[in-house]
Amino acid sequence: MQALLILLLVLVLACALAVAFTRDLLTCAVVFMAQSLMLALIWVLLESPDLAITEAAVGAGVDSLLLFAVLKRIGAIGPGKGERHGPREK
Amino acid sequence: MARVRNDFEGRRWQRFRAWLNEGDTSLDSLLMDAVDGRSSAPQPAPSAPESADPGAVNHLPLSAVQARRARAEKFSRGLYRTLAVLICFGLIGVLLATAAALPPFGNPDNPVHNEVSRRYIEQGMAETGAVNVVAGMILDYRAFDTLGESNVLFTAACAVLILLRLGVSDRVRRWERDLDARLYEPQNDAILQTLARFLTPMALLFGFYIVLNGHLSPGGGFSGGAVMGAGLILYLNAFGYEKTARFMNYRVFQTASCAALTFYAAAKSYSFFTGANHLPSFINAGIPGMLFSAGLIPYLNIAVGLVVCCTMYAFYTLFRKGDM
Amino acid sequence: MSLHNIAEIAAIALFGVGLTLLMMSRNLVKKVIAFDMTDSAVFLFLAAKGYISGRRAPIIENGVQSMEAYINPIPAGLVLTGIVVSVACSAVMLSLCLRLYRRYHTLDLDEITALARKEED
User: Fold this and answer.
1) What is the pTM of this model?
2) Exposed/middle/buried for residue B28 (C-beta within 10 Å: 0-12, 13-18, 19+)
3) Residue C42 is part of which domain span?
4) CATH number, domain with residue C97
5) How many domains are there within chain A?
6) What's the whole-number mean pLDDT along residues A21-37?
7) Which of C33, C37, C70, C99 to mutate against chain A (most A CBs within 10 Å)?
8) ipTM of the complex
């Protein structure tokens, strides 16, 4: 159980560094969703099932959905990606 | 800023588009037009290098000033980045040094496990009637805090409504509808609709189950409300805005959120006047383990679940469609 | 630094990554993602405070009501509220980003600052 906790914590940090060093915004949103999911697994290991359900439904669910909706609105995904108005990233 | 209109097809937008597309990173051409007060018909892109022609005498001192300003900005940007990294690393170093002095993780003798948690666990079920000690704590012992949190959600929904719904002229709405995802996606997608017909009732039912059983098993208003909201979002994505607006529109959102929040405030806001002294509840706790036990907790869970569900749906549809 | 507090150390490292990303990134949506990341780090730190090894989740089973059988429920209650407030804050920040995009057609902070300064002249 301790080894699984250490593995999940290392994965969460790896996801955070992946978000930091990626230029594509869609990849950032997807990796952030994966980080929320791994955080939900950590809550289960820390014996807090309320937090696990809430983080899975809210963090890996609605929060990431909002990010996708915003990215679609600014034209960072979909056809003609980035050419329409040129929202530059870094 | 008062004289700037929301004029997307006007000259300002054309100039900005030309500046963006030609990749000119210096601020010369854009700033010079504003300083000269040059009123312009829509200028095509090739005219921009002409205005930066160093042969024109009255432009020369301006471009030197602007070049110096651009260099100063680049230097300050580099300085900001270095200082930001140094300060962040310094702060994290201080925090890590403090973490070395923390009591060990998982030790039962930590000072955080004091008489408050003893009271909540040992007498929680007898006093509140809830089998789930966390639900009994946040909806009975500390119900005032959850009232504040529901208020935060409601305020956030109002803020997003104000920001994304009002003050939009017709031309912008037409232009943004062209950008809307719905026009570029295949309508009546077969896979999505077949799955949504099966999954949406299940998601709503599962969310309601989590809300109702908040005091008996893990879950509660927040998680159940989020699952219900996710079910509604799936229905919106599969069947479109018109069909969903038949049963979930602005009036339903308004009624459900305000009624739920008013009920919660009527039940638990006496703490504004009595402080931390709770009034004894006139609904008795019942037998622990039954569905309608634990006093007011199931009803407060339903209220919180309604607020969370409506808020999550409102966020998504305002971001996607711009309207409720 | 002993390895007794891995969860707290991981939470502090995650907070550091989020804070640095918040200050260094130029895109506004990435700043919102970084803000959410720092929120998650604080929740991880708080919830790790309430864990006691060898004990169960705080849901009373078989009538056992002694304190020695369950973990501390108080930090879990704090984090539960925090998660939902975090998503509300992210939603308001993202709607502000959308309004900025509608006005300036870019989400790069340097360009927005330059355009806003130009408008004020």
Assistant:
1) 0.81
2) buried
3) 3-59+67-120
4) 1.10.287.3510
5) 1
6) 93
7) C33
8) 0.90
